[in-house]
Amino acid sequence: MDNSGTKKTCMESTRDFFTSAKFLIYMGHALSTWGDRMWNFAVAVFLVELYGNSLLLTAVYGLVVAGSVLLLGAIIGDWVDKNPRLKVAQTSLLVQNSCVIACGVLLMLVFQFKDQLTELYNGWILTTCYILVITIANIANLASTAMSITIQRDWVVVVAGQDSSKLADMNATVRIIDQLTNILAPMLVGQIMAFGSHFVGCGFISGWNLCSMCVEYALLWKVYQKTPALAVKAGQKEQQQELKQLSPTKDLENGQSPEESSQPLMNETSVVAKSDSPKQRSCCYQMAEPVRTFKAGWVAYYNQNIFFAGLSLAFLYMTVLGFDCITTGYAYTQGLNGSVLSLLMGASAISGICGTVAFTWVRKKCGLIRTGFISGMAQLSCLILCVISVFTPGSPFDLSVSPFQDLYTHLIGEKTLPEAVHSLTGGNITMPTTAAPTQELPPMQSYMSVSLLFAGVIAARVGLWSFDLTVTQLIQENVIESERGVINGVQNSMNYLLDLLHFIMVILAPNPEAFGLLVIISVSFVAMGHMMYFRFAFRSLGNRLFLCCSPEQKVEAVDNPSLPTTV
């Protein structure tokens, strides 16, 4: 073949890649995630600015979002399962971006006319605007959840086909996109708001979502056209055959046959519901439909073979050892400035990307389930540094200081203890005439404690993201197509539940002296999560969990991640 022929072949290969369904999914996900990250960062800043630098609106928004996904996760997933893929993706895309655009326009009006709105009807118009912003933003988040389930948990699986290695590569690439946009998108919108204004920031985000919505809509249609399998949802027999090819392990401990253990619970519920004629359905019956869907979704999740694997991932959300507002606030109390924190966040992102790359390599060598076990041990080993940091020089950890001291101070104000008790009791309790002097904490003599803390957090990101990808692919491969949406919806609800509990834990013990206790609790929950995964892995592989794969077994471990428990 001549040079021109070889060059033409290379050009064709390049063109085929950039026009493939896989690349188009990457492009659409990058645009969607970029808009999500900008909005999630900006809406918190906007709410703080609107309410006089108070965190009240931000806290209410976070509580509403977490509670909504917790209650509606299974219902959203069931809606994804029962409707055509293209309709679900397009509807979720339009609702999500339309709500963000509406919120942006509403916030622009509030920023522009805040003084006038404050005077109208004693401020009730402004309060109504706050409620509308939080409500519409919550609807946008629910639509984003549906979009995430549809694309990342369903479309990716169909595009990958029966190729487990291709599915792992696509999951890793999607996660790398998440890591990059999580750092770059807030930086962009932050600079726009810093050099412009909040009004300009709202306008930029609204314009971005409008343009992005049109491009994403076209990309979805292209992917749908290039992947005919997306137009058809497999029947029950085809789903069972797909499970046998991807993951032949069944729940033998419960005495179930392979056919019995793979029966879709949600389908059975649907069949019973369909058997009832419309005349038999009363108004109360129809109103209770969401409750039945919610219950059936959680029951289906509990009966999955990968239940303990999914639960282990949810337990990792019960932690303060992440780069969120809590850890950032603690770092400020320990003397770290914004410049150092930005460098640490960059290092955390690089560590996360290394974890996604390590996932694909370890999985090819050891198989999917062993990859999760190795990743969990790596994460837990790194988090030991965080526990050590609690007891090293420079740590403010002090059990003699009440964890509720800050709450008590906010309740009684800045009064001395005798004055506060006198005001609360009306002077009916006699206090000592002299109070013990409060001992102030000495200034931090060393950065050893906070350095060990962040070293452990950053290093643990490698194992964390590798483990997250492992559980994600286990759910993708072991859940039948007709339940894929509802199971992932319940998984999101579990994640939000544990995340909500970790915020409650911080509210109960907010002072820096108690942060060490929160670190120990967080590591304990991570350890419990990995113990659950160990149970799942040992039930799937037995003693072979600790054995290295031979060259012949490596291929089998890659293609069939859930090997039988008997040799």
Task: Write structural notes for this entry.
By secondary structure, the chain is mostly helical. It folds into two domains: 14-230, Growth Hormone, Chain: A, CATH 1.20.1250; 303-401 and 446-546, Growth Hormone, Chain: A (Up-down Bundle). It contains 23 helices and no strands.
Keywords:
about 575 residues; mainly alpha; Growth Hormone, Chain: A; 2 domains; 23 helices; about 75% helix; globular; MFS_trans_sf; membrane; metal-binding
Q: Quick summary of this structure?
A:
Helices cover 76% and strands 0% of the residues. The protein is built from 23 helices and no strands.
Topology (SSEs and partners):
Layout: H1 3-18, H2 21-50, H3 56-82, H4 85-112, H5 114-119, H6 124-160, H7 164-195, H8 198-226, H9 236-246, H10 258-261, H11 265-275, H12 283-287, H13 289-302, H14 307-315, H15 325-333, H16 338-366, H17 368-390, H18 405-412, H19 417-425, H20 448-478, H21 484-508, H22 515-541, H23 551-559
Helix pairs in contact: 2-3, 2-6, 2-7, 2-8, 3-6, 3-13, 3-21, 4-6, 4-8, 6-7, 6-21, 7-8, 7-16, 7-20, 13-21, 14-21, 14-22, 16-17, 16-20, 16-23, 17-20, 17-22
Q: Average pLDDT value?
A: 79
End-to-end separation: 51 Å
> Which consecutive residue ranges, at least 5 long each, have pLDDT under 50?
248-277, 410-444, 550-567
The coarse overall form would be: globular
Give the assembly state of these chains.
single chain
CATH hierarchy: architecture of the largest domain: Up-down Bundle
Order of helices and strands: HHHHHHHHHHHHHHHHHHHHHHH
Secondary-structure-derived class: mainly alpha
CATH class of the largest domain: Mainly Alpha
Number of strands: 0
Count every helix, treating DSSP H or I runs of 4 or more residues as helices.
23
Percent strand: under 5%
Question: How many discrete structural domains?
Answer: 2
Rg calculated over all Cα atoms: 26 Å
User: Sheet with the most strands?
Assistant: none
> What is the fold named in CATH at topology level of the largest domain?
Growth Hormone, Chain: A
The helix content is over 70%
Function: May be involved in iron transport and iron homeostasis.
GO molecular function: iron ion transmembrane transporter activity; metal ion binding; peptide hormone binding
Organism: Astatotilapia calliptera (Eastern happy)
Protein name: Solute carrier family 40 member
